[in-house]
Amino acid sequence: MNQNLSSYWIFYTVANAGNISKAAKELYISQPAISKSIQKLEESLNCKLFSRSSRGVILTDEGALLYGHVKEAFETLNLGEDKLKRSIELGVGHISIGVSTTLCKYMLLPYLSEFVHRNPHISISISCQSSNETLRLLDENKIDIGFIGRPENLKGFHFDFLDNIEDTFVASPEYISNLSERGIEEKDLLSNATLMLLDKNNMTRRYVDDYFQENHITVSETIDISDMGLLIDFARIGVGVACVIKNFVAKDLKKEKLVEIPLEIPIPKREVGFAYKETVKPSNSLEAFIDFYKTYKPED
Questions:
Q1: Is the pLDDT of residue 220 over 80?
Q2: Phi/psi of residue 53, each to 5°?
Q3: What does pTM read for this prediction?
Q4: β strands within the chain, DSSP E
Q5: Nearest to 272 by CA among 207, 198, 197, 201
Q6: Please, what sign has the CA dihedral across residues 238, 243, 244, 250?
Q7: Which of 5, 67, 90, 215 could serve as 121's disulfide partner, Cβ 3.0–4.6 Å?
C-alpha cells in the first residue's frame, strides 16, 4: 500500500459525501487539505479518481473500482472494532496452562471448574507435561502460566504457593499381609516389596530417588508407571507398594482400602503452585485467573 490509511479515509469520505465541502465538515479539515490529499492519491495511483459535476464530485470508473475495495476494508475494520468492544465487555480471552497430568487431575481441575463457571467467555487450553517441561515452555513464552511443584531455581519466574503435597508409600492390606506371612518385617518392606514408581522423567520420581539415596534405601524390584492414577489403581488391587502423593489417597486411607507404609524418616513435603514469567505482562484474562486462584478455596 503506497498511501497511508488517512488518505484512503479521506477518499472514502469524499466518495460517500459526493462533495468536498461536506466531507471537510465531516472530517474537520479544510477543503484545500482534502483536495491536496486526493490529488496526491491520484498521482500515486496514476489515474483520476473523481470528476467534478455541478453538484460536487463523482467517482470515475477507476475511482469506483477502488471505492469498492476501500469500502470493504473499512467495513471490516469497523466490524473488528465492534467485535473487540464486545469481547472486552464480555471478558473474552484465552489462557494457556502447563501442568502435569497428576497435578491437573487431582489439584487443578477444581480451580478450573469454578473459574470457567465464573468466566464463561475465557477459553482455556491445557498442555500436560512434567513440571520441568512446563518451566521450559514458560521460558519460551509458549504458555501463559504453569501449575508446578516448586523447583530449586525460580530465577525469572514468579511463584504463587498454593498447597503442600506429601509423598508416601501405600499398599493394599492384603499385600502387606502377604509380605508379613513371608516373614518380612515392617522396617524392610520397601527393600523387599515390588515398588511402583512414576517414570524417571517425572519430577516426583527424581525427588523420591533423591530420598532413597540420601537415606541409603535400596530397592530390589520396581515397576515404572507414567500415571499417578494407575499407580493408585495398581496399589488397590495388590500389585505392589506404590509411591503416591498422600493428598490424593486420603479417602482410600480413611476407608482402609490402602495402608500407609511407615517411614523412619518421612519424605519432606513439597510446595506446589502457579508460576509465570516475571518479564511478561499478564493479559487481562491471566490477571483475572491470578486474582481468582489467590482467593478461591476448593471444597475438600
A1: no
A2: -135, 180
A3: 0.65
A4: 50-52, 57-59, 93-99, 122-128, 145-149, 157-165, 167-171, 194-198, 221-225, 241-245, 259-260, 270-277
A5: 207
A6: positive
A7: 90
Query: Where are the extended beta strands (E) located within 211-285?
Result: 221-225, 241-245, 259-260, 270-277
pLDDT in tens, 17-51: 999 999 999 999 999 999 999 999 999 999 999 99
Q: Is 155 helix (H, G, I), strand (E, B) or coil?
A: coil
Single-letter amino acid code for the residue at 28: Y
**Quick one: cell of 224?**
515404572
Q: Could you give the CA distance from residue 216 to residue 212 in angstroms, rounded to a whole number?
A: 6
Residues 125, 123: Cα–Cα separation, whole Å: 7
Which of 21, 15, 99 has its CA nearest to residue 60?
Answer: 15
Give the residue from 243, 266, 246, 270 showing the smallest Cα distance to 152: 270
Q: How many helices (H) and strands (E) does the chain have?
A: 13, 12
**Structure confidence at residue 126 as a pLDDT band (50, 70, 90):** very high
For residues 97 and 144, the answer to whether their CB atoms sit within 8 Å is yes
Confidence check: pLDDT of 212 > 90: no
> Letter for the amino acid at 69?
H
How far apart are alpha carbons 194 and 196 in whole angstroms?
Answer: 7
Q: Cα(141)–Cα(15) distance, rounded to whole angstroms?
A: 46
Q: What is the pLDDT of residue 87?
A: 61
Single-letter amino acid, residue 181: E
pLDDT in tens, 80-104: 877 777 666 655 588 999 998 888 9
Distance between CA atoms of residues 49 and 38, nearest Å? 8
